[in-house]
Amino acid sequence: MTLPWLRPTWLQLISSAQQGRLGHAIGLPWLPELGTDKLAEHLSQWLLCQAPNKGSKACGRCKSCLLVHAQHHPDFLRLGEDSESSIGVDSVRQLQQRLSNTAHQGGHKVVLLANAHNMTVAAANALLKTLEEPPRDSTIVLATNRWDSLLPTVRSRLQHYQVHAPGVETLAQWLTQHAQTPVQTSESLRLWCQRPLRALEALQQGQDLSASPLEAVLGLQPLAKSTNQAADVIALLDEFETLLRDALWLSMQGAAQQCRAPQLVEAAGLQRALSLEMIAVADIEQALTECQQVRQHLRTGRGLNPQLALQRVITPFLAKLQPAATAQA
Ligand SMILES: [Zn+2]
Q: Which residues have beta carbons under 5 A from ligand 1 (an ion)?
């Protein structure tokens, strides 16, 4: 599957590398729903490939490529992919050890450090030493969507590359092509621009994107009949959790443009609700805990009415948020 919105960044990376200007440490966004995890993976594979096709793509056939696919490449280390776990000094030591070895495949060594904002301060300080004196023939690809949470000294050692989300027209075309169902551009579709892969998944599950989950979550539309299905309810819970995590981020003075779902945040009137102290951090944390409990219940399928369970989590929070959303609309 091609992700056309990643192409400009990809070409920039390849052109830097071909001109010998690619840094030892690259900063990329980590937004799996936008596919930037694939960008980081492709870059890693391309750097390790022994015979890149015409210079712009990993060959997919050499020993290095096969080892990457099998997740067994001795010169490639992936860290931090669990977005909920912190990255400690031990992981950074592992990274340092991997990079200080001689390359087994005789070429490059690559470490992909995802969710880099999860590094502890001690880990970030340890990493800083490696960034200051990078080992030969090695690249660290450091990815996060929360640059503000990284030590400025780490941030400043990286060569940064931006990714731009598709516009609503590109998104509609791309979805039409991949979901094999016509998708029209609309205001609701705009809510999905930052999350095209999630939108595709939703379409494939038969969800109507014009009735965005956020609207359902916010009570702007009645929940569709199908939301009695546990899977649909879990999808709505995911949306709600994204909103809650952004709320936590904003409550820590995080930048609005680094929210995971900026359009959702705007539509929910979240910033206003926080600034007016209509919701407190404790409310957000409680709602997150309840989301996890409901999700667990739904997965084990123990005699719970999915829609009621969903409403029980969401309604109290929305009751606090709703006046802000209405005021903004
Ligand atoms: Zn290859």
A: 49, 58-59, 62, 65
Q: Which residue has the tokens 């990274």?
A: 95
Give distance in angstroms: CA of 57 to centre of ligand 1.
Answer: 8
Report CA(47)–ligand 1 centroid distance (Å).
9
Domain ranges of the chain: 4-160, 211-328
Compute the distance from residue 13 Cα to the ligand 1 centre, in Å.
17
Burial 286-319 (b: 16+ CB within 10 A, else e): ebbebbeebbeebeeeeebebbebbbebbeebbe
Spatial separation of the C-alpha atoms in residues 39 and 172, rounded to whole Å: 21
Consecutive 10-residue averages of pLDDT for the chain (329 residues): 93 92 95 93 93 80 92 94 90 94 83 96 96 93 90 95 94 94 84 87 81 58 56 78 90 83 79 87 92 83 74 81 52
CATH class of 4-160: alpha beta
Q: Ligand 1 centroid vs 48 CA: distance in angstroms?
A: 7
Q: How far is the CA of 46 from the centre of ligand 1 (A)?
A: 7
CATH of domain 211-328: 1.20.272
